[in-house]
């Protein structure tokens, strides 16, 4: 059971007074159905987030990461990854400034010798003061860690919140035994929410009209969508599964725009391959699914039989880690090797860096506007943006805690 959240107000940190909320109450009152989302600049607590690829953490290596404003340390010991807060409880210095690990299972602060267990964060020794009574009674914050599909996931949550299964924080099919994923990560200078909304933005397909991925895959690509019904998106809110939204499957395909007109004149055209309906169905993107805490699955993308899974991991209030993986069902080692080769030599340069880099450009261009909280209420959305609003409202309903400034400090 979740504990009751802290009362809204402010806290003293040294000489600074820091409000619990980043957003003024007057603004939150204007969006009652998605106020938690508006407030979640640093993301939602009590969720699993990927922070590194498994290949990035070698045995015995100590590396740093930052998630939701919290700076952490990770180390692989006997194959298992552990994570603790990168801050000594004594005087607050970063352990990473000068890493000292005298034993495999501990890390020692370079300043006064406070030593902690990697598996629990417990203070086990103080080299400069070995008889101090607090030894064994204090601890650094530690984080639950899981590895799956080549990614290292860290659970950022409240002390009395029991971590739920990873399956509730990833799209369906990601954890399937035969699903093999390869990917890369990019630091993006925008808030994580702009990443999510870019991923489900039905009209942003216009942005990609000249992407090199289109001729590479010989796929049709419209300029946008028209006449979307209000119930175009289906909500998934089962208590034991991911909380997300996805387009409904309609019997008849909804019309798409392939000609762009300005003052009645055709000024731009989409790409429409002359293929049979059966061939076109195989080449087009058949759907997408986005779920908390901020992860998207796109089916049959960047090509038939592939799945793109991408995460928008909060780093700070204006930066997120963009983790993109291309997955494929593989039955044999030969298929696994072929998929890895194709990812490295085709999909990474053409799709991740030739298609998704356009999304990165768009998010970073959005950030100056949405950096001002008032502007979340000044946007002018249209009918085809309904999915964005439904996503915000779903996040509000299923928020299990908003990261506060007091959690970051």
From TrEMBL:
It comes from the Bacteria. Signal peptide: none annotated. It holds the Pfam family Aromatic_hydrox. One of its GO terms (molecular function) is 2 iron, 2 sulfur cluster binding. The keyword Oxidoreductase applies. The keyword Isomerase does not apply. Residues 48-154 form the Rieske domain. Keywords: 2Fe-2S, Dioxygenase, Iron, Iron-sulfur, Metal-binding, Oxidoreductase. This is Carbazole dioxygenase. The lineage of its organism: Bacteria, Pseudomonadati, Pseudomonadota, Alphaproteobacteria, Sphingomonadales.
């Amino acid at each position: 059971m979740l504990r009751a959240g802290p009362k809204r107000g402010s806290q003293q940190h040294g000489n600074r007074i820091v409000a619990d909320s980043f957003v003024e109450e007057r603004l939150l009152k204007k969006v009652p159905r998605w106020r938690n989302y508006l407030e979640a600049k640093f993301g939602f607590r009590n969720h699993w987030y990927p922070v590194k690829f498994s290949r990035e953490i070698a045995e015995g290596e100590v590396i740093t990461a930052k998630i939701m404003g919290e700076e952490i340390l990770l180390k692989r010991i006997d194959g298992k990854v552990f994570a603790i807060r990168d801050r000594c409880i004594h005087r607050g210095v970063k352990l990473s400034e000068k890493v000292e690990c005298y034993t495999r299972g501990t890390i020692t602060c370079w300043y006064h010798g406070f030593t902690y267990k990697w598996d629990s964060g417990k203070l086990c020794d103080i080299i400069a003061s070995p008889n101090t009574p607090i030894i064994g009674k204090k601890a650094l914050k530690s984080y639950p860690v899981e590895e799956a599909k080549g990614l290292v996931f860290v659970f950022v949550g409240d002390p009395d919140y029991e971590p739920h299964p990873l399956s509730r924080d990833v799209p369906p099919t990601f954890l399937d035994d035969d699903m093999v994923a390869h990917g890369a990560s990019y630091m993006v200078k925008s808030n994580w929410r702009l990443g999510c909304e870019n991923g489900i933005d039905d009209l942003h397909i216009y942005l990609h009209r000249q992407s090199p991925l289109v001729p590479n895959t010989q796929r049709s690509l419209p300029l946008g969508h028209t006449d979307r019904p209000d119930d175009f998106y289906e909500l998934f809110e089962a208590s034991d599964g991911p909380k997300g939204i996805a387009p409904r499957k309609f019997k008849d395909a909804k019309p798409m725009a392939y000609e762009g007109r300005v003052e009645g004149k055709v000024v731009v055209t989409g790409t429409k391959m002359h293929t049979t309906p059966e061939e076109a169905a195989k080449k087009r993107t058949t759907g997408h699914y986005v779920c908390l805490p901020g992860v998207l699955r796109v089916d049959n993308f960047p090509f038939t039989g592939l799945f793109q899974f991408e995460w928008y991991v909060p780093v700070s209030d204006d930066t997120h880690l963009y983790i993109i993986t291309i997955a494929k069902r593989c039955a044999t080692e030969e298929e696994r090797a072929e998929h890895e080769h194709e990812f490295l030599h085709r999909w990474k340069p053409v799709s991740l860096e030739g298609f998704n880099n356009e999304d990165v450009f768009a998010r970073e261009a959005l950030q100056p506007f949405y950096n001002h909280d008032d502007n979340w209420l000044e946007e002018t959305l249209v009918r085809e943006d309904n999915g964005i609003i439904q996503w915000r409202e779903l996040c509000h309903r299923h928020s299990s805690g908003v990261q506060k400034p007091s959690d970051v400090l």
